[in-house]
Structures are given as C-alpha cells and as structure tokens.
Amino acid sequence: MTGFALGVLFGAVVAAALTWVVGGAVARARAAGLAAERDLLRERVTDLEAAAGTETELVATLSPLSSTLQRVERQVAALERDRVEQFSRLDEQLNAVRVSGEALRQQTAALAGALRSPTARGAWGEVQLRRVVEHAGMLARVDFSTQVGGVTPEGVGVRPDLVVHLPGGKHLVVDAKAPLAAFLEASEQPGTESSRAAALHAKALRAHVDALAAKEYWAAFQPSPQLVVCFVPGEAFLASACSADPSLLEHAMGRRVVLATPTTLLALLRTVALTWQSEALAGNARALFELGRELHGRLGTLSEATTRVGRSLHRAVEDYNSWVGTLERRVLVTARRMEQLDLTDGEVPSPAPIEAVPRPLTAAELLDPVDRESA
C-alpha cells in the first residue's frame, strides 16, 4: 500500500507538474496572442486616427471645390435652360424662314410665269428702268423722255424706251427690251439642262446686242455719244449670260452697246446728274461774271456822280464863306453902328464861316483817268 500510495502520489505530482507546465505554456501562448492582438488593435487605432486626420484635411480641402461644383451645376442648369429656349426660338425662326422661302418660291414662280409673256417682260423692264431713273433724281420731260420717236439718216424710224438729255443739247439712248425667256427656263431646270438654257440665254442676249447695234439709235438723236445703253433689269440676268459667254461684254462694247444693270445704270445717271449740276454752276459763274462787269461799270458811274456832288459841295462852301464875308463887311458894320447909337435893343449875331470841306475820293477805282494822273 505504501508503495502504491507513493506511486499514486508520484503520478499525481507528475500530473500536476505536467498540468502546470502545459497550463503555463497555454497561458504564455494566450498572453502572447493577447499581446499581438493588442499591438494589432493599437496599430489599427493609429491607422484610424491617421485616416480620420486625413479625411478631415481632405474635407477641408474639398469644401471650396464642393461649393464651386455647386455653382457650376447651377450654371450648367441655366445654360441648359437657355439652350432649350434658344433652340425653341431657333426652331421658330427656321419655321418662319421656311414659310418665307416657300412664299418667295411661290412669288418667284408667279413672277416667272408672268414674265413668260413678251409684253409683260417689256412692261416690267420699262417699270424697272423708270424706277432707276427716278432713284437717280431725274424728272420726266425735263431730264429724260420716254418713247421718243426718231429717224435715222437712212430714213428708218426708231422709238427707244428712254432718251436721257445731256448738257449741251446731247442725248443718251437707253433700250429696255433685253431677252429673258431663256433665263427663266434655265432657272427652272437642274443640271445639264440648266447649263444649256443659260447658253441659250447668253446667245439671245448677244443677238439682241447685234440688233441694237444695227438700229444705230445714236444717229437718230444727234448730237449723241456713239453708243446705246442696253438695260438688263436684273444683276442675275447679266451674270448668267456672262458666265455662259465670257466674251459677251467685250462683244457688246465693240458694237457700241453698253450692257447696264440697275446698279451700273444708276451710277451712269448719277454721273449725268452731276454733269448737269456742273453745267448749272458754270452758267451761274458766267452770270456772276456779267453781273460783276455790270456792277463795275455802275461803280464808275457812281464815282463820277460822287465827284460832281463833292465839287458842288466845295463850291457851295466857298460861296457860303464868301457870302458870310460880304455880310460881315457890308451889312453887319452898319448894324453895329446902329447898336452904338442905341437905335436897337439886341445885337445881330455874326454867322461863322464853314471850315470843313468835302472829303476827296482816294480809291483808284473811284477816280477818273484825269484825276488818277494828277494823283
């Protein structure tokens, strides 16, 4: 029993020692784990504190940017609202332009249809011509005449649309019957057909130039510049013809025909009006010269009369002074003797002689030739 008890006791001691050793290792391991966990938590806390500081700084840094972004958002919203309004207005304007374009197209088509008639084209050209002349400030039957008949030296009667009167009795003839039918066809046909119609328009205008040159309007209205003005009632008509026939203008000038659109004809007529003004100024200058000569002659006559008046005044002063001297020597002496004898109550005043004399003429223009030589 004793040995068994000792064995049991030894086993118990060994078990207790083992338990203590194992418990210490477990405790140390747990302590090490707790220490490691503590260190991790401490690092985590440090990281969190650092992150919190960084976030604070980031918030402080981004705060102005946030307000700026808000302003940008408001501006973008305002711009978007304005863009929508502008697009709405633009859409309205585009609709208005479309409506106007459609109305213009209809009116152009109606005008083109009306101008297909030669009579209507001629009347429209004459109306356009008259409007240009009126814009130039000219008066009918004063500065120009319409539908004036004339006869060439060969006995051929002509009747141009307009005759502009130039200074010196000269005349400038204007014709307003330019062909437009081919141009109207070109405006309605696309592509190659349009080019062919434009070439026909240029050919028709060239033929009209040759016809005007053959009529020799300038010979029926002498004196006149050796040319005739062919009025083309639109810039597009002449531009289309010149594009199809670049030598058209040179050909016309060689035939003494001037192709004039409303713009160029207005400039020409304004030049004529300026010539009339220069002629009027020259006439006024001549009239002023004649008035000056007449005034100079009248000044000479007036100077002669003034000289005679001055001489008369000088003689009158001399006669008056002589009369005063006679009065003092012949009459007043007796009157004074009567006063000395107390025969009168008052004294007879003695008139004074005139000392001033008329001022003589000194200007050379007012002196007679004899007086000038003596002066």
Automatic annotation (TrEMBL):
Recorded coiled-coil stretches: 31-89
Pfam families found in the cross-reference section: RmuC
UniProt keyword list: Coiled coil, DNA recombination
Domain of life where this protein originates: Bacteria
Membership in a protein family: Belongs to the RmuC family.
Chain's role: Involved in DNA recombination.
Name this polypeptide is given: DNA recombination protein RmuC
Native species: Spongisporangium articulatum
